[in-house]
């Protein structure tokens, strides 16, 4: 693939990431922010008696002024974070698409984009989420934030490395086992290794306070999962359509057409 084509796909991937990020922001604002507001309100209600006690003892606690207000966090801050996230992952996914195109079977650009988006969602978010699910703010031990963040990113790196290894193993097994059996074997190997990783890596036993409502926690985690699923689904569909338009003029092979079926070619006029 030519460098100019890869550059064009990179730009299209970032554009698709922006659009997917806007959709994800809308969903996060509608279904995610209410659970965050509820968790913050719960934390404030639990800490209020302690402040009242300090004030009664003659040592009133001074309220810290927020550098960024909650309304700004839930609107401009959330939008900025989701859009930057979408642009970055859109660019990375478009490069992965350029590498995978034509190397994972005779798939059209749309199908390849959907495959890349699905694989990225599974390896980068879903599998690490199953081991270390998201938690609302102000519900865990702040002293363990660094540890929990390290474990989550370790799980992401491990998932991506095992997935890449599984893809390479599947390609090498394909001539012997066939494409279907090789794909099943590679996918099963990935699932087994990641299941062992989930068993061996330490659990986040102090990620959520025991008094935190289970229903509110479940609501937040479903919202987080839904936002990521929407982000990657939208990216796969949008980028697939953009990539199809970019690659179609390069020849019938890129769009799944043979030279004899291209309208206006000598082969068509000869018939």
UniProtKB/TrEMBL annotation:
Q: Where is the signal peptide?
A: none
Report residue spans for region: Disordered.
251-271
Kindly state which keywords UniProt assigns to this record, in alphabetical order.
Membrane, Transmembrane, Transmembrane helix
Q: Please give the start and end residues of each transmembrane region.
A: 9-31, 76-99, 111-130, 150-170, 182-202, 222-243
The record's InterPro entries line, in alphabetical order, gives:
CbtA_put
Tagged with keyword Membrane = yes
This protein's source sits in the domain of life called Bacteria
Q: What is this protein called?
A: Membrane protein
Q: What is the lineage of its organism?
A: Bacteria, Bacillati, Actinomycetota, Actinomycetes, Kitasatosporales
């Amino acid at each position: 693939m030519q460098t100019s084509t890869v550059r064009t796909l990179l730009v299209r991937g970032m554009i698709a990431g922006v659009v997917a990020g806007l959709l994800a922001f809308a969903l996060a604002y509608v279904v995610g922010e209410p659970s965050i507001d509820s968790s913050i309100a719960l934390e404030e209600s639990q800490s209020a008696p302690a402040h009242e006690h300090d004030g009664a003892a003659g040592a009133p606690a001074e309220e810290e002024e927020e550098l960024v207000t909650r309304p700004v966090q839930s609107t401009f801050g959330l939008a900025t974070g989701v859009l930057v996230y979408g642009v970055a992952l859109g660019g990375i996914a478009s490069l992965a698409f350029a590498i995978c195109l034509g190397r994972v079977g005779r798939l059209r650009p749309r199908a390849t984009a959907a495959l890349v988006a699905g694989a990225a969602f599974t390896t980068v978010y879903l599998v690490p989420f199953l081991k270390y699910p998201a938690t609302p703010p102000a519900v865990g031990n702040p002293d363990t934030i660094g540890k929990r963040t390290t474990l989550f990113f370790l799980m992401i790196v491990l998932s991506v490395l095992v997935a890449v290894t599984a893809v390479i193993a599947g390609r090498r097994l394909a001539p012997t086992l066939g494409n279907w059996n090789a794909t099943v074997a590679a996918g099963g190997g990935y699932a087994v290794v990641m299941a062992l990783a989930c068993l061996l890596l330490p659990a986040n036993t102090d990620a959520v306070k025991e008094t935190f409502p289970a229903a509110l926690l479940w609501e937040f985690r479903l919202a987080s999962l839904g936002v990521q699923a929407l982000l990657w689904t939208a990216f796969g569909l949008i980028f697939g359509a953009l990539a199809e338009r970019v690659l179609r003029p390069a020849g019938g092979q890129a769009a799944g057409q043979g030279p004899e079926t291209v309208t206006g070619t000598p082969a068509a006029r000869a018939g």
